[in-house]
């Protein structure tokens, strides 16, 4: 990130706020894509990964955050769709008060705290 700012070739892209109706459609599409990803996983896991990719692109383009509950459903590192018990392991780390999600595609771990009441609601 810091390198990009120092690079003289790097041009700042002007970002205007998108119309609110577009933002509504974008967040709706993200929701639909994650539902589709879940439905497609049993038949074609590659398709689920593609849906996640599209959802992330929409989220970045329209500057809409992906809902917490969906953020936990894909790997932060390899961006693959995760199904707990199939390609992801979920464990609780009591001393650190966090949920440990291990991605079995890339082997990396993600942590989510459960100490705060805000993080507990799904
Ligand atoms: Zn991964």
Question: Can you give a write-up of this model?
Answer:
- With 122 residues, the protein is an alpha+beta fold.
- It has a single domain (19-120), classed as Immunoglobulin FC, subunit C (Single alpha-helices involved in coiled-coils or other helix-helix interfaces).
- Helices cover 42% and strands 14% of the residues.
- It is built from five helices and three strands.
- It has helices spanning 2-6, 20-40, 45-61, 68-71, 117-120; strands spanning 88-93, 98-103, 109-113.
- A three-stranded antiparallel beta sheet has the order 1-2-3, with no helix packed on it.
- β1 and β2 form a beta hairpin.
- α2 packs antiparallel against α3 (45-61).
- The protein is globular.
- The model has no long low-confidence stretch (mean pLDDT 88).
- The structure holds zinc ion.
- Zinc ion binds at residues 75, 77-78, 80, 103, 105-106, 108.
SSE layout:
Blueprint: H1 2-6, H2 20-40, H3 45-61, H4 68-71, E1 88-93, E2 98-103, E3 109-113, H5 117-120
Antiparallel strand pairs: 1-2, 2-3
Helix pairs in contact: 2-3
The structure holds zinc ion (ZN).
The site of zinc ion (ZN) has 8 residues, from loops.
